[in-house]
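Running this now, will post back.
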Amino acid sequence: MATSFIDSYHGRVALSMPTAAAVTAPRTDLDLAAALTKVSPKAQARAKATATDFEAMFLNSMFSQMTSGMKGEGPFGDTPGTGVWRSMLTEQYSKNFAKAGGVGISNDVFRTLILQQAGSSSGANGKA
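Update: finished.
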């Protein structure tokens, strides 16, 4: 298989795919790492739980919308009690999905909470 080239500043530079290590290596979030040193482990655990609960609430809303138009027989049938059962089912789906890693919303919420807490704690320490 021939190597592709691109003309860059009148020179020829080979195009190559990134190595597997470069693709799978996680990026270090230096802001988050610094903020985690300023926030207590107990506050970090609360922030993580809050972020997971927020993602579960979001997923519950999405799952509820996804299943609201289902008609037919079985667990998603169209009987009077189905709505209550379906809401409990989607709630459990969303909680389990969020605990298993979800879709990534909780990571961003956790990061935001920690950065805010670290900023407020350093601001409080700076004023005292």
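The first strand starts at residue 5 and ends at 8. More later if anyone needs it.
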